[in-house]
Design a protein that fits this description.
Blueprint lengths: L1 H11 L4 H4 L5 H7 L5 E4 L3 H16 L6 E5 L2 H10 L6 E4 L5 H11 L3 E5 L5 H9 L4 E6 L3 H6 L3 H11 L4 E4 L2 H10 L6 E3 L3 H9 L2 H10 L6 E8 L3 H15 L3 E7 L5 H8 L5 E3 L9 E3 L6 H5 L4 E4 L12 H4 L5 E3 L7 H10 L2 E3 L3 H13 L2 H19 L2 H10 L3
Parallel strand pairs: 1-2, 1-4, 2-3, 4-5, 5-6, 6-7, 8-9, 8-12, 9-11, 10-11, 12-13, 13-14
Helix pairs in contact: 4-5, 4-11, 4-20, 6-7, 13-18
């Protein structure tokens, strides 16, 4: 089966094709010079963001050994270099999970430990690590509803448990993740609730200078900025209808639309253009009602310019995108019915008054109008204070994670 898929895989993943077969460059092998690296893996952008604060904690602790980061996607690689300058030594593309490829990569790199982020379970890699007596860790682990569904049925559950048991230790984000894994039989002594490393990542990524430049460019003194971040197909129409409701009453407003995948920018642009004046973020000219984000790595700073933010992956059944990003700026956050991947944070944000769950375009539009009608200074200052207290209390997962891994060095 794998052999038959090679032509398709080679076309899709032309960059790093040899590395994906476990073949490392001679230059990398020579640079390691017999030193055993710490190997971390993040499939794409989100997983890389979860790993970076752990690498920062490692370097801040004085660890000077080589660190290799692998990604599956090219956008993951780009994010690694964007966020991780000075934190890791080498990037490679992750080998396909075929015994031959994985074993070849492990023998070449000879890591002293391996860590993967969030929901990545690759049985062949974990089996080979076990055979080689290399400790394996799951960082920022979570069990999404979609993953949980896969464990239904005795055979699937048994296989799932057998894979999780291959990890030396598992570091989980939330109590719910712990309860799910322990309920199916994963050893409790492997499970640790350490919180979300992305919280630390957010606090370290805040760049007020960059945020202020965006504020000037977006004419924020004249307009209130509303953002819809990480939207999926079908959500942009809902958000645009909500903005139509808002804009009909408050004309001095702008909407920034950031699709989860920037390559959809043209599609989103065409949709928005049916009712509003529209421009792309890359154009540098922001006189339009709607601005469509067509590049990665800018959404977090843009959240800092917003009066309010809707987070995507929540009107469609995707489990919700990262609500921590806008909340860390102390702005009100909205999302649809699906926020399963951030269930505990979602519930707490609603209780704290930071977030509102909405069920329709009209509901979202009304919430945005309500935000505009509140006393701006008092309301905004209260939100910022509540947000700061939450993130101060929730930080520190990365240091705890690294300290536990380093015991195996």
């Amino acid at each position: 089966m794998f052999f038959l898929s090679w032509p398709k895989l080679k076309k899709k993943y032309s960059e790093g094709y040899e590395e994906r077969k476990g073949i490392q460059s001679q230059g990398l092998i020579e640079k390691l010079k017999g030193k055993r690296p710490f190997w971390v893996h993040g499939v794409s952008v989100g997983e890389v963001q979860a790993l970076m604060p752990v690498l920062r904690a490692a370097r801040d602790s004085g660890y000077s050994g080589p660190i290799i980061i692998s990604t599956t996607t090219e956008t993951g690689r780009e994010m690694a270099f964007r966020l991780g300058e000075g934190l890791f030594d080498f990037h490679i593309y992750y080998p396909w999970d075929k015994k031959k490829f994985v074993k070849r990569a492990l023998q070449s790199l000879n890591p002293w430990a391996f860590a993967t982020a969030e929901t990545e379970l690759w049985p062949n890699m974990l089996w080979e690590l076990k055979d080689a007596s290399v400790p394996a860790f799951l960082i920022n682990g979570r069990v999404s509803d979609r993953t949980w569904e896969r464990f239904k049925g005795p055979m699937k559950r048994k296989f799932g448990v057998s894979v999780f048991e291959l990890f030396t230790e598992i570091y989980l984000r939330e109590k719910r993740d712990f309860e799910r894994l322990s309920s199916i039989g994963v050893s409790a002594d492997k499970l640790n609730i350490l919180g979300d490393t992305k919280t630390d990542a957010l606090l370290s990524r805040k760049d007020l200078t960059s945020r202020d430049k965006w504020l000037d460019s977006l004419y924020s003194e004249k307009y209130k900025i509303f953002i819809a971040g990480s939207t999926h197909p079908g959500e942009e129409a809902v958000v645009l209808r909500a903005f139509e409701i808002l804009n009909s009453k408050y004309h001095q407003t702008k909407l920034i639309l950031a699709p989860r995948h920037p390559e959809r920018a043209k599609e989103v642009f065409d949709l928005a253009q049916q009712k509003f004046s529209v421009c792309l973020l890359s154009s540098g000219s922001f006189d339009s009602d709607v601005i469509v984000v067509d590049k990665i790595g800018v959404l977090f700073d843009l959240y800092g310019t917003a009066f309010s933010a809707f987070v995507g992956g929540s009107f469609v059944d995707k489990g919700g995108q990262n609500i921590l990003e806008p909340a860390s700026w102390g702005i009100p956050v909205q999302y649809g019915p699906h926020m399963e991947d951030f269930a505990e944070a979602s519930a707490e944000f609603i209780e704290l008054g930071i977030a509102t769950q909405v069920n329709s375009a009209e509901n979202l539009g009304d919430v945005w109008i309500g935000i505009m009608e509140r006393a701006p200074s008092e309301y905004c200052e209260n939100l910022k204070e509540v947000s700061e207290k939450y993130f101060k209390r929730s930080s520190g997962s990365s240091i705890k994670t690294w300290e536990r891994i380093y015991k195996y060095f």
